Amino acid sequence: MPAPLRVLFAAGATGEWCITRVSAVIGDPLPGAARLAVRPGERVAEGQSEIAPCVWSLEGTTSNLRYTTRAEETALKARQEGLGRPAARRAALIPIRKTPAWWDLPQDERRAIFEERSRHIAIGLDALPAVARRLHHCREFGGPFDFLTWFEYAPEHDTLFEDMVGQLRRTEEWAYVEREVDIRLIAGSRAD
To answer: Any idea which fold 6-187 has?
Structure first.
């Protein structure tokens, strides 16, 4: 497993991604902003970012695959393409917080809901390699979310991405989501 990567997502007036929409799916929204900066390895506390001041910022870190079997991990690695592909001019940042009831469940019960019944990994596999993704854990940081999910895809895969997100939101797993914000982005300017 690669070393964990801490990533800062900061919304404000600067950044490589133009924010086209910020929607509260469940719970409270985040304030709107014009742009989003994505900075691997940077932290708000360091205070050395060209993105300060910002409207809001979220931090997360990559980690081990917590609910994934060896076979699922192998399938994901075989189909997943990296972030930063030139054709991937669309992105989505979807911060999620699960309910206390979710965290009260033992690991095996969360796994059963996550994959055996909700098919979370299988749904994601169906969208690969068109939709690249990276999960950032942040529950341990004490912020407003448990996970920050980052997706990148080409404009011609908009429908595939919407179908994937829609399928996930209709699963049993989503009954345990108490806050979800959907932030949509375009690389560069709105004219892209």
So the answer is: Alpha-Beta Plaits (3.30.70)
